[in-house]
Design a protein that fits this description.
Length: about 270
């Protein structure tokens, strides 16, 4: 395969990751990559993707690398403590996200912004975790994606996944891994999301929320196209769903048993 005109040279650790990930992705699914021309560009930019399986980073790494670029994932900081994996993450310039402590989230956003402004590619999953939506649609995005997208004038490219959830199904009881028969795993890059109007104004909470919803709405529409179905009009809100479930459980709890303590003596009828 011819080398991409925007090929980004990596180091020995990236070569090691490629040697592991390419064969693994091939064995776990028939990856179908579309819209690669949107990601095959020079300079820094932000990739924003839906999250349907713990295998998504594997297939995303391969898809982005095939465009010639090197993805820098924003991933939970605890992964840096895993032997070998932690070294690979650190030496391939991935970005740890530590949600503990004051200012931890801002530190990861600052690191991501610096990477993009330095001409690198950053990938984020605004769901924050594999989606808990019962129908596997993107969840209500965390506002960090909007805050990051408004820090500079760089492309924000939506990415849609479908199929990795059929290879490995997260958050279910029983058998999760279904590698055979091999499934089609779709990775689709879209056109950059237009944020010019928001970047020109004040970057307040409303602008950040609007940017987050606009970006994730573009991702959701692309997921609908890949699946061949109409997406929902609202995002699944995990916290709201948990509150409703707790309320429903409380409403269905049995009534308290009558007290066995003796009551006051009855007044005789007259």
């Amino acid at each position: 395969m011819a080398r991409s005109p925007v090929y980004e040279k990596g180091n020995a650790w990236l070569a090691f990751c490629k040697a592991v990930m390419y064969p693994m992705a091939f064995l776990l699914g028939r990856q179908r990559i579309a819209g690669a021309e949107h990601a095959r560009r020079k300079g820094g930019y932000l990739l924003v993707a839906n999250h349907i399986s713990h295998l998504d980073p594997l297939f995303d790494s391969v898809a982005v690398r095939k465009t010639g670029r090197i993805p820098r994932f924003m991933a939970k900081a605890s992964l840096w403590k895993v032997p070998v994996l932690g070294q690979a993450l650190a030496n391939s310039e991935q970005i740890p996200v530590d949600r503990a402590g004051a200012g931890a989230g801002q530190n990861s956003l600052d690191a991501a912004t610096a990477a993009i402004l330095a001409g690198k590619v950053v990938l984020i999953y605004p769901d924050g975790t594999v989606t808990r939506d019962p129908d596997m649609w993107p969840m209500k995005p965390r506002m960090g994606v909007g805050a990051l997208a408004l820090t500079g004038d760089f492309p924000v490219i939506p990415v849609a996944h479908w199929g990795s959830n059929k290879v490995y199904t997260s958050y279910v009881e029983g058998r999760r891994f279904h590698p055979l028969p091999r499934k089609e795993v779709h990775t689709v890059f879209g056109a950059p999301v237009d944020l010019d109007d928001l970047r020109a104004g004040a970057h307040d909470a409303r602008a950040i929320r609007t940017a987050s919803i606009r970006i994730m709405s573009a991702v959701r529409e692309m997921v609908g196209e890949v699946r061949g179905v109409t997406p929902p009009t609202e995002f699944y809100d995990q916290r709201k769903a948990e509150r409703l479930a707790q309320r429903a459980a409380g409403d269905q709890s049995p009534a308290p048993a009558p007290s066995s303590a003796p009551g006051p003596p009855e007044t005789p009828e007259r």
